[in-house]
Batch of 2 targets.
Target 1
Amino acid sequence: MLPPAALADFTTALSAERVFTDAATLALYSHDETPRSCLPDAVLFPVSHEHVAALMRVALAHHIALVARGAGSGNVGGALPAPGSAVVSFECMDAILEFNPADRYMVVQPGVVTADIELAARAHGLFYPPDPGSSPYCQIGGNLAMNAAGPRAVKYGVTRDYVLGLRAVAGSGAELRTGCRTTKGVTGYDLTRLLVGSEGTLGLITEATLKLLPAPEARATLRVCYATNLDACAAVARVMNQTVVPCALEFMDQRSLLAIQAAGAAAGLPDGTEALLMVEADGAASDLPRQISALKTALQGNGMLELLEADNPAEVARLWQARRSLSHAVKRIAPLKINEDVVVPVSRLAELVGYIDRLAERLALPIVSFGHAGNGNLHVNIMVNPADSQQMKNARLALRELFSQVLELGGTLSGEHGIGSEKRDYVSMEINAASLEMMRLIKAQFDPQGLLNPGKLLPP
């Protein structure tokens, strides 16, 4: 339990109605989307930067670990409490503090739902490009922590590319302001990009200044069916090797298609479909026909069975229904979904997909692959029954072999989910000892007592 003196000081810093230690609340905040859980000693609900600075001072005085939390929708244990820790939930810090359409930026608190940022921007003819699949409920603070992305990353980039500046409280208690409100600025070290993607291990972000873009006038979507995974991957390579960059290029393998069909989506696929691509283009209405024509030419090739096009919002929504239902649909295959998000160069995607098929056969594991093919970012879902000891043993073996193959192909262990507690034991496979030591020194400078999100990101 939280020491009485620490509880009293947290209560003074935040007020009694913002400090919870009851069993029901602790259980609710004991886990994220990973299968593990750990009860925190308290859950804290700040509403301002000043609150966060105050609770950091209390944590330092009593040596209490703090774990930042948004919506708890992460897949790698990034918001999993540590033993003896307090969870800092940012869900009450949900205000858009400033919106400047003329200069195309917005200042938000970390608890703002990502989709709400997009809605507010669209009302002024602007848009916020990062679009993780969980955007209807995930919070921008979690996106910042993990440097989240989504389908539009192939054209527009990831969360980090749209952060102009931050306000944060470091683990040392220092109150930081980073970056600026202009799209150009090179004064000092780039602490903004250091904090984004640091998974709450360096500081607690309290405000973010986000860059916005003019909203595209129009968009059109293609759904393309292929006879094999390799046919679809070859089409991805052709698309990414011509001049029109799609704003989304998504891949689904046969197990993905079976899962969403079982859930009532993706009906009417032609016989023999084993892979599907969702391709979207956006931009000026006058230019869209040229883009679609170029994409259609690239998509045609061996194994293409069908190509459907939609350019009205209702039809586009129908075509995307299958893709957005995937993450939940595959959970019906087995009780536990081990969800990885590896990345390889686009030119090596076919090799990775072929390797995964062979790995699944050799270890007798259902593996479902889908994801952001235009970036080479594949969500590899190993489906297992935790009660089956042999399956779990094979799953652990599959993870290490998968990561080894990804690195051999010139890839990386995570494209958008982050490392958290689930992948930290594999980080040294990718990052050498000297680089890891430099990262630990940075961590010690920001967080000398090691209180922020312990047990995450960096291996021990």
Target 2
Amino acid sequence: MRDPPNPESDSTRAGAASRAEAMEAAALWHARLDSGSADLEAFERWRAADPSHAIAFARTVATWEALPSGLAAHPRPAARSRRAVFLALGALSLTVAGVGVSGRVWAREHASTKVGERRTVRLSADAHADLNTDTRLSWRSRGDQLTLWLDRGEVAVAARPEAGSVLLHAGGVVCALSPGRYNARLEAGRVDVTPLDGVVVGRTPAGAPIRAVRGQRLLARDGEIAAGAAPPEELDRIAAWPEGEVVFNGTPLSEAVAEYNRYLDRKLVIEDQRLGRLTIGGRFTSTDPSDFLSALQAIMPLRILRTPDTVILATAE
């Protein structure tokens, strides 16, 4: 009768090391697939190269599926070491069935717009999003869970009741969206989520949930979040941008120029900051400032100087 394998034997140690390496690699592939940064062909080559790779990846998938939903919905800490990831996964004894899990079901979809561009994307059969200028959005629809990540810019999200649970991640804030329509903007570290006809519940990692309904908005910055009334001029702006327009109502010129510049490659520059305190009102095409500049010249003492890269607003002589 043969003796059982010696745990300290070279072959046993080599096998354990091989399994450890496979689990570590599987965890890394899973993270890349989850973030949408993976090379899918390279992943398929790695998984097909050895049966242990497919088994390790299936265990990884099963482990994350077993996590509580509240934990799985949050981004994984970037500082977590590869070895810690392996240990967390390897400590669980799981029965693996169906090792041919495709990495494609874990990959996020991505969409982005250039400066001045707008586009509409379908998030699932029952939800879609409009992307404003210079915006990047990623999403994953799995079962009755739709998860969105707003990396920058502004989106209008519409979800029917059939869309199921909708989570929006933006700037360290996680928002649960009920069926309805929402506008979300992430700019300069500030998150602004406005429900147009729905309920949003947002929270930061260290904060309590904050609720906002129609007529309100959530504002978050530096780890703090609060709900307040949505100003009428902000609601007008939200309604205007999907139509390719910007709207101002007694807006200081400095703020109007900053908003317009979101849509323009050739930026507007205020030469004399005293001009920036003057106010402007009106509705204009977002990607063509010609009417805006004509209106400024009609009501303000200024000159317009054009350079190849900028349009300068200067005080009239």
